[in-house]
């Protein structure tokens, strides 16, 4: 698969088989993530791999409660409330693997650095025939003392990109994208 195919073919996957993802594949994905550019070449990322479904279920419950406590009213809040109130909704979609990309300390560009690593990981997973999804519902909770303790993260770390990985049950439907708004200056 070439890079254009990976970019156009990568879509968020929310339905997974129970098939495990091999350790060697996970290591390749993390290696691809670690090749991302970073500000001043600081490479602040740290990778936490979680496969324990009971732990992911617990983190899902606690993250949903955290989101409900802090959800600001807005255009999506009713939709989010309905999802987060549903006891059967598991925010990790029962994917076999969560790879959390964290920064080793707060810093001016750590979010951007970890987001670049996340994109590399997701494109690499697509090239491997795997599905991924960045789980925004987990981010706030994973930056609380309780969330950090649940995943054994150092308290100084900043959880940035919770990415689920697995074998898709079926190919995700393509998503329509708007044409880019390009302005030429000068």
Question: Your description of this structure?
Answer:
The chain has a single domain, classed as NADH Oxidase (3-Layer(aba) Sandwich), CATH 3.40.109.10. The chain is built from 7 helices and 4 strands, in the order H-H-E-H-H-E-H-E-H-H-E. It has helices at 3-9, 23-34, 53-70, 77-85, 110-127, 136-142, 145-150, and strands spanning 45-50, 97-103, 131-134, 158-166. The radius of gyration is 17 Å and the shape is globular. The N and C termini lie far apart (37 Å).
CATH fold title: NADH Oxidase
Poorly predicted segments: none
CATH class: Alpha Beta
Overall pLDDT confidence: 94
Q: Tell me roughly what share of residues is in helical segments.
A: 40-55%
The total number of structural domains is 1
Q: What's the count of strands?
A: 4
H/E element order: HHEHHEHEHHE
How are the strands of the biggest sheet laid out side by side? 1-2-4-3
Structural class: alpha+beta
Which outline best applies?
A: globular
CATH H-tier superfamily: NADH Oxidase
Q: Sheet with the most strands?
A: 4 strands, antiparallel
CA-CA gap between termini = 37 Å
* CATH architecture classification name: 3-Layer(aba) Sandwich
Total of DSSP H or I helical runs spanning 4+ residues = 7
Summarize the structure.
The protein is an alpha+beta fold and 186 residues long. 41% of the residues lie in helices and 14% in strands. The termini are far apart.
Sequence-ordered SSE layout with sheet pairings:
Elements: H1 3-9, H2 23-34, E1 45-50, H3 53-70, H4 77-85, E2 97-103, H5 110-127, E3 131-134, H6 136-142, H7 145-150, E4 158-166
Antiparallel strand pairs: 1-2, 2-4, 3-4
Helix pairs in contact: 1-5, 2-5, 3-4, 3-6
């Amino acid at each position: 698969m070439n890079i254009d195919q990976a970019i156009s073919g990568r879509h968020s996957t929310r339905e997974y088989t129970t098939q495990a993802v091999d350790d060697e594949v996970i290591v390749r994905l993390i290696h691809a993530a670690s090749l991302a550019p970073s500000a001043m070449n600081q490479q602040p990322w740290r990778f936490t791999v979680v496969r324990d479904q009971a732990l992911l279920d617990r983190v899902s419950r606690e993250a949903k409660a955290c989101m409900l406590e802090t959800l600001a009213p807005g255009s999506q809040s009713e939709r989010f409330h309905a999802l987060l109130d549903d006891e059967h909704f598991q925010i990790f979609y029962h994917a076999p693997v969560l790879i959390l990309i964290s920064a080793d300390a707060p810093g001016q560009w750590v979010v951007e650095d970890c987001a670049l690593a996340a994109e590399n990981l997701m494109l690499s997973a697509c090239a491997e025939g795997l599905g991924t999804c960045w789980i925004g519902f987990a981010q706030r909770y994973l930056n609380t003392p309780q969330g950090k303790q649940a995943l054994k993260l150092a308290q100084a770390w900043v959880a940035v990109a919770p990415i689920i990985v697995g074998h898709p049950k079926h190919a995700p439907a393509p998503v329509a994208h708007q044409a880019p708004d390009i302005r030429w200056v000068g």
